[in-house]
Amino acid sequence: MGRREGHSNIIFAPKYSVFIEETTFSRQLNEPDILVHGITNANVFYFIAVHIKFSIRRKRNIFVLFVLFFAGLFLLLHFRELSVIPREAVSSIDTSARTEGATLTRRGDGDHGQAVESHDPEQLGTKMKLNYVRTGNAISVSPRETTEKKKSACLETQEESRFREVDRGTLVYSAWFDDRKSQRFIRVLMLTSTREPFPSLFCHFASASKQKTFISSVFFYQHNENHHMQFGGFTASCVLPPELDSIPCFVNISTRSTSTQNESNSVALPVSFIDRQHSVEKVQSRRQYGICIPPLHGEISIDRLIEFLELSQILGASHFTFYNLAMSDSVRKVLNYYEDKGLARVLPWNLPSYIGKYDIHYFGQTLSIMDCLFRSMSHLDFVAFNDLDEFIVPLQHDSMSALLLKIHKDEHCGHCFKSVIFDPLREDLQISQLLTQRIFHRTKDATLFWTKCVVNPRRIFEQGIHHISKPIEDYYIVDKVDWSMARVFHYRKCDDPHALMQPKCSAGVEEDKTMQKFGERLLLNFESKATAITDADPEELSVN
């Protein structure tokens, strides 16, 4: 008998002609390869002993496999539990940022918006990674409830929106609870550098009992009209942890991913709401049509301001939102009058001194548009975004409300209108205190790139100055209104060397007396309001 190639051990029982071989491969397979060549009946116990030896070894190997399997299963279940149960001992937490730095860019219809995030929570929903911190006894995590069952107990006296500095060059303005998608978010409107890398920020949420803190990473969406300036507007989003026992009234925006925070690295920002039930907007009832005005600064004629407010109301507007960058006392007192009547809201626009005129596009206008968009959701069916020298004028209906009732369809997120220019340098001979009642010549052709839009605010993710940048859902479409139905009357110089885009002034002008039909009513309203405002504070205000 000899050794077969590939076998390490041969056990030989010559009297009983028994060969039992264990291959070297048996150790890889965890069982012996036994060859038996005939058995007589004398020393069978020897064979049995050897067989038992290998059986024990095989069973031992199987036992080890079972132990390893169940140990692995236990560890898997254990770590899954750790991902949902808040961590113990706040002082010992050191959670690092989970950022992969992926950049997603969407372009189209003039949209250069940029989303920068570690994962896309819009698609992943509740799968986005969250960090949890607990400061009290163990509390089991309840299943997610619907928003309707988690009504906020936030006070109506929330602090007014203003810029708050998280870090130098990173300022937050307002935060909004957004439940328009299946995944709920806190949307933070902010200014920061447009240069990458963007700052690492985290949202800290306290439970109603203050016993737990939930931490969610911020991902950024850059607004599309920052024009490559040093600073620009962003929508920063945080997934709202489903384990929160109530909708948060505040969110702490911090540069730290742990619970250790102080005034130098975090800002407590009140959370506002887009539904009427929880909104802190002081509007008595839901209204159909309002207007957002960009940050006001410089010399503003009181006559022009009152004319804008009164004519816009005749055209259908019932609420106005202003942002105070550098208003004169006279302008502020006019707006105080309309605020007292419940027709206007004035918010501070306190840009820091180190962000100059050439560091940001038009004083952060796009961010004010986004804030006004969110602010309008709770009380307006439609909102427009106008300057003081612009009026969206219906040509076949008595008001914008009547026009919108006619043209708005279920698939529309908003309606955009072409613009024509009424140049004040071409004043007609008629003498009137009102600008719109003495200029009746306009450009013959529409100015396509100076369109203005009226939108359903709840259907918009990002709104631009002259276009709808991004609907909240891709299936919504923008209605480009035929200019025979309505158009923007823009009262400004036609030839303006400072304008980013030049209108078609060379095509000539034509007479347009559409505004005359509002003249009598406008003059009556203008004079009564000017008198009321002057009488309210005759020493401080002179209408001019």
TrEMBL record:
Region annotation (Disordered) ranges = 101-120
- Record localization: Membrane
Q: Name one GO molecular function term.
A: glycosyltransferase activity
Q: Which domain of life is it from?
A: Eukaryota
Q: Which InterPro entries match?
A: Glyco_transf_92
Compositional bias (Basic and acidic residues): 106-120
The first-level EC class reads transferase
**GO CC terms:** cytoplasm; membrane
List the keywords (alphabetical).
Glycosyltransferase, Membrane, Transferase, Transmembrane, Transmembrane helix
Transmembrane parts of this sequence: 62-79
Describe its membrane topology: Single-pass membrane protein
Q: Which residues form the signal peptide?
A: none
EC number(s) on record? 2.4.1.-
What protein family is recorded?
A: Belongs to the glycosyltransferase 92 family.
Q: What is this protein called?
A: Glycosyltransferase family 92 protein
Annotated source species: Desmophyllum pertusum
